[in-house]
Write a structure and sequence with these properties.
The complex is a heterodimer of chains A (about 450) and B (about 425). Helix content of chain A is about 70%, strand content about 5%. Chain A has helices at about 15-25, 30-55, 60-80, 90-115, 120-140, 155, 165-195, 195-200, 205-225, 230-245, 250-275, 280-300, 305-330, 340-345, 350-365, 380-405, 410-420, 425-435; strands spanning about 340, 370, 375-380. Chain A has a three-stranded antiparallel sheet. In chain A, strand 2 (about 370) and strand 3 (about 375-380) form a beta hairpin. By secondary structure, chain B is mainly alpha-helical. The termini of chain B are far apart. Chain B contains 18 helices and three strands. The chains are: A mainly alpha (about 450), B mainly alpha (about 425).
Amino acid sequence: MIANHSISDTRFVFPSLEQFLDVLLLEEYNTRVVVLGVMALGAAAGIIGTFLLLRKRALTADALSHATLPGIAVAFMVAVAVGGDGKSMLGLLLGAFVFGCIGVLLILAIRHTTRLKDDAAIGIVLSVLFGLGLCLLKIATEMPGGSAAGLQGFIFGKAASMVASDAWTMVAVATVIFLVTVILRKEFTVLCFDEKFSTSQGWPVVKLDIVLMGMVAVVTVIALQSVGLVLAVAMLIIPAASARYWAKNITSMLILSAIIGSASGWLGATVSALVPRMPTGPVIVLICGFLFVVSFIFGRNNGVVISQWRRLQLQRRVGMQHILRAMWEVCEDKTEKTFRIESIVLLRSWKLAGVRSLLKRAQSKKYATHLQHGEWIVTEAGFAKAKRVVRNHRLWEVYLITYADIAPSHVDRDADMIEHILGKDLVDKLEQLLDSGQPLSSPHPIGDKA
Amino acid sequence: MNWTEIDTWIVIIGALCAAGCAIPGTILVLRRMSLMGDAISHTVLPGIAIAFLVTGSRDPMAMLIGAVVVGLITAFLVQAIQSIGKVEVGASMGIVFTVLFAFGLVLMRQAIDHVDIDPDCVLNGAIEFAWFDQNPDGWGIPRGAIVNGTMLLANAFFMLLFYKEFKITAFDPALAKSQGINPGFMHYMLMTMTAATAVAAFETVGSILVVAMFIVPPATAYILTDRYGVLVGLSLGLGVFAAGLGHLSAITVPTWFGFSGTTTAGAMAVAGGVLFVLAWMFSPSQGLLVRLLHNRRTRSHILAEDVLGFLWRVEERSQGSVHTNELHTALGVSGGALSKVLRRLVKHGAISREASHYILTKSGQARATSLVRVHRLWEVYLDKNFPQDGHQLHQSASRLEHVTTEEMQSHLGDADTDPHGMPVPSDE
């Protein structure tokens, strides 16, 4: 940290190329350790977070991470009381693990024995145990023979204090989690998507759940040191949530989530090494957040862009079909297939401008031609196409009247909603169904088979 | 313990904050949105950091506005990611608040490292020093008390103004909609109240206590009462009590073990937790221990009736007294439970004991007779209305005989023999 900068000093100091390469090529030992550690953490969290997200336990993990704080304090106090130095990483993490598990058990107990729901149970455990942790930490700082300074680092994370053995612990944990996931992938997947099915298969659902939450606890505990307990949950859920926008199936989601997690770890550690006054944990979370936003907007499944594009496409198709049907209805009984734009406007709650632009689109597709002054003619191709559309619409009307028992005065609107999403196969089926039954009787003539 | 004026003010500030939080907290808990309170309390941090960067000062009004705006953005983003991005609500909250909180931390490190807002203060608050933070014309009232008191009044005002609307939306959002209450408006008003309360409280007591006070007292009250008005009142009381108890324990409990004291904000949260555990165990209607005791009492009551019935049937076959072991095998219960029941029956004079053998007394006989009568009448009734085989008949009647009231018995009618051919004993 740079000690003396003025209050208005918000300048962004760009690193020199040399520094840049130093960090990027992992020349420095410290950077190497941190990068290795957070990448392993990101991969482990990404994998286990996928199941956590699918099992809808995201915030249980948040409570778990907050509940580790009293564990750290208690472990320190016990170690100092029996004459140890209290800062042994293994002891602290063990304490954190135990209290994290206690937190999860308390949530389950509150949920099952009171009328409070998950949210309140999580909130109670999270805030009360964290408060307890703060109290105990304060007391721990007064313990004779031990210096508790630095324990606060677990709250917001202090990646810079990471040493090689910590990084290798993270790698080991990530490997174990990877192996367990490879072995239990099928079981976990079914547990997440269909708990009842896995019960019916005779799988030990409760044991699987315990293994899953146990692994979440392990990942949370190793995340404490680098990203801190307030933000540990971000490492678990954000990569998984981002991966879901791209993945085809659970395997690709697991792989993507692991990649996003470790990429965020790597980028975060790099940025924080390059730019002064950039705390590693929050920067990693911000990069995760950035990748989430990118996925949220551009993702293949439910991404904002793709959903909007699909909606627009559907709207255009529906609009075109409406105008085709309107043209047909206006010209149905005429030999001259010409019509005036005003007669179309009258058919629906349409505005003149809207009809005009629809007709222009129809013209560009050669379904209709503008003659003069609002006088239009339907082309051969347009007529054939319109015939099919109208036929679909009227077939549906008949179907709805015959089979769905809908009043004839309502069928037009209902058929209107469904006709646009009919595929060719469905139309054929519809014809067969109606052919085999009573003679066709639409409120309107049905039209010939195109 | 050395209680001074400062301690009194600490408790007053904590109590004002707790009461202020309890009001929106009741609705958050009832609407299952408790964690929205948690999320918004976290995003106060980026809110004040941005306000600081924009205005370059620590003007409280700017920070309030900044935090409320970011709080509302949080609520909006959570909803947007949930509905547009098809992410489950918990995960959506987790994503939004962690990213915004991380953003706040980075901003603070970048620009305002040496201003007296630091991450530890965010969590812990500085309620211990709140007394020293006084406006020159504040009549000796600490700023924390004024800020939290104002927030409490504002929350109470809105609560009273929209009492009916809040109550209906909290319990039945669908009904609220049908009554013309705009759920979106109520939602964002609640979010505004939550964010404003969080930022008002945050500086003095820290965000962790805010989260605790939003959720814990209302959740505690919820397992004590069914009525909304009582729920609000209880939450206020519990919050205030937790604040007092918290500070008292913060300065006393550690001294028992030779330490000087601990953080008040944390201790207030823990005190809230202790009150919750007490309610969880001892709530008259839903307490865990209360329900456990009730179950045990019911079990031993049933066992006592079974003993009486068994002894009566033995006498019916004109075999005399019964040995304990025989009772064990016949009733299939553990020794401890049975001997306790037997001791109580002896004490009440329903049975008498002689060398590990038991026999009904006169009053015991009367009680047993009516039990067996009810049992056999039930068998008759069930056989007539719901024909089933003999063993099932006996099982059903054995369950029903323990819960039959006088009135039910009068509807069972009368009979001479049960379906097994045994005589139905008469009442007298």
